[in-house]
Write a structure and sequence with these properties.
Length: 592
């Protein structure tokens, strides 16, 4: 029996080790879909509600497993819907392959139905590799290169396939001039800097007396080495959001996240340090790093293009974080004076007390922080945590104490709304035996999350461990932006753009065969988590939370406080906000 080019492409993906493709059908990929009959269970088509869910899920697969995530969509509108998830992959350096359909070759250029200039559309997001398969003999090397380049560059790549090429009989490249003969396989190299550069880096780090370390997702897998370096240098470790799981929060010298979503000890450490070591991070906000000239800097990144751009580093090392730190450790001297480290640990201890106090402040009806505080103590071993973009992200970043063996992902650099539930789906598909908790706001839930819940309901029966909780903060507000308007721009809340309609999230979950729990009182929070994590079925935990609890750390900068004061003059919620803000400040002061 002959093989179609569509089927051949699927077989090729299987040879590359791909087990599932997230996608949505359309006649632009009928030739590929037909191939799924032939490949059977070796490659699964996971049908999700929206192509954006497919690209988020493929991205999450890549972020969680390190493997290439694959998504598929039809020509025109389907392809367009993939874009946001693919940009998430691009900006967070995740390897993803998108396979999209196109109209027949003979239609192209005819302003044909659903004809979109796909190479141009994907040229930016898949800048490392995007090609059209114009004939069957190209199929082999286009799939091989899309997979290899996604892996090698940790970025999304794209193969566009006209429908008639998908349906055409596959023929391997002929032995003639012009043919391309590719093969599968890619082994990640171990990249280590040169000895002389390591020595220069060690000299900088040894000379400092107050060293701060900032790690990002590139440090995942290098936790023990980061810990050893921090021990030798008497340093503290701050974490960018996608690097949260690289080093557990239980360590007394881990200052937690950084930036506007960050912690006071991270900020204090950056303000007080004389040396900065950055590992596997492109944390974008320079104002939360030391002032130029204040500190000497060393940076390690696997991608040389990412070096020395957030802070003027003295030494930039291109290397794998674990191997580079291992090579650096023998060159580092143990700092005898531990005063700086003790100061950091003191600050961290105090900070956890502040967070505890803040979580227990009363609010109307629920303080969102309490949800995260109570979850933190109950996080199951091996949990995978996903977050969205919104005020939930602030609490997620500060209040959850990650332990060894957990993973935590979000859209770090694109900071887009909507990934939390699609990420949770992909987490469960890749690790059906691990508990998953997704945290998001009502805006993101209304934008895409309620659709993605249908996917959870659809696929849940295959998960051996049913622990999957979707926490929705129902505050009827696009709260993060409301606060950004107040704090960054000095404007009061604009009701027209910020207020959200209510929606029965928990009741909706019940309706589609999941469990729903709705809470609106502090004493319900702990028991709700207990129930949700023990219920034997995925749960939507809907919490009615107070939008006037500022999702800002108590140490916001003077200019921001000034802008906020200005904004509140015309804000109807002024009284409640000032009460919360003053209480937050009091917690900070009383815990000194
Ligand atoms: C796709 C997209 N649109 C808009 C934004 C800007 N934005 C960031 S957070 C946010 C509010 C999110 O609201 P919600 O999900 O209700 O969470 P809350 O902040 O209320 O907790 C918005 C609109 C974004 N990041 N991504
Ligand atoms: Mg909201």
């Amino acid at each position: 029996m002959s093989t179609t080019t569509g089927q051949f492409m699927l077989e090729r993906l299987i040879k590359w080790g791909v087990k599932r493709v997230y996608g949505y059908p359309g006649d632009g990929i009928n030739g590929l879909l037909g191939g799924f009959h032939a490949v059977g269970e070796r490659l699964e088509f996971v049908q999700v509600r929206h192509e954006e869910i497919a690209s988020f899920a493929a991205t999450a697969h890549a972020k969680l497993t390190g493997e290439v995530g694959v998504c598929m969509a039809t020509s025109g509108p389907g392809a367009i819907h993939l874009l946001n998830g693919l940009y998430d992959a691009k900006l967070d350096h995740a390897p993803v392959v998108a396979i999209v359909g196109q109209q027949k070759r003979m239609s192209l250029g005819g302003s044909y139905q659903q004809e979109v200039d796909l190479p141009v559309l994907f040229k930016d997001v898949a800048s490392e590799f995007v090609h059209v398969c114009m004939e069957p003999a190209q199929a082999r090397h286009l799939i091989d290169r899309a997979m290899r380049i996604a892996k090698a560059t940790r970025s999304p790549t794209c193969v566009i396939v006209p429908n008639d090429v998908q349906e055409a009989e596959y023929a391997p490249p002929p032995r003639e001039h012009g043919a391309v003969f590719s093969s599968i396989g890619f082994g990640d190299p171990l990249v280590v800097p040169r000895e002389a550069d390591l020595r220069r880096a060690a000299d900088v780090l040894n000379a400092g007396s107050r060293v701060a370390i900032l790690i990002g997702q590139g440090a995942i897998g290098a936790g023990p080495e980061v810990e050893r370096v921090a021990e030798l240098l008497g340093a503290g470790v701050a974490k960018a959001l996608n690097g949260r799981a690289a080093l557990p929060d239980e360590r007394p010298f881990v200052t937690g996240s950084i930036g506007l979503l960050g912690t006071k000890p991270s900020n204090d450490m950056m303000e007080g340090c004389d040396t900065l070591l950055m590992v596997g991070s492109s944390f974008p906000y320079g104002e939360w790093l030391p002032q130029e000239g204040q500190a000497r800097g060393v940076q390690i990144d696997l991608d040389g293009r990412m070096l020395n751009m957030r802070y003027p580093m003295e030494v930039g090392l291109v290397g794998d974080s674990r191997e580079t730190l291992r090579a650096l450790i023998p060159l580092l001297e143990h700092k005898a004076d531990r005063a700086w480290r003790e100061r950091i640990e003191d600050g961290v201890r105090r900070w956890w007390e502040i967070l505890d106090a803040q979580a227990h402040e009363s609010a109307d009806p629920l303080n969102p922080q309490l949800l995260f505080h109570e979850l933190s103590a109950r996080l199951p071993d091996g949990a995978i945590l996903t977050s969205d973009s919104g005020s939930a992200t602030d609490w997620w970043a500060r209040h959850l104490r990650l332990r060894d063996g957990m993973q935590a992902i979000l859209s770090g650099t694109l900071a887009t709304m909507c990934p939390a539930v699609p990420y949770a789906l992909a987490a469960k598909m890749a690790f059906p035996d691990r508990p998953v908790v997704a945290c998001l706001g009502d805006g993101a839930m209304q934008m895409l999350g309620i659709n993605a819940l249908i996917d959870l309901a659809k696929y849940r029966d295959r998960w051996s461990d049913q622990r999957l909780v979707v926490l929705v903060l129902n505050n009827r507000d696009l709260n993060q932006v409301t606060w950004e308007q107040r704090v960054m721009s000095g404007d009061p809340k604009l009701d027209a753009s910020q207020r959200l309609p209510d929606f029965p999230y928990a009741a909706y979950a019940q309706m589609i065969g999941l469990k729903g729990i709705r809470i609106d009182a502090p004493e319900q929070v702990g028991p709700a988590w207990e129930e949700a994590l023990a219920s034997g079925i995925p749960v939507v935990l809907e919490a009615i939370t107070d939008p006037e609890v500022p999702p800002l750390p108590p140490h916001i900068r003077f200019e921001q406080a000034h802008e906020m004061a200005h904004a509140l003059v015309g804000d109807p919620a002024r009284g409640a906000i000032v009460r919360h803000a003053v209480r937050g400040k009091l917690d900070e002061l009383l815990n000194r």
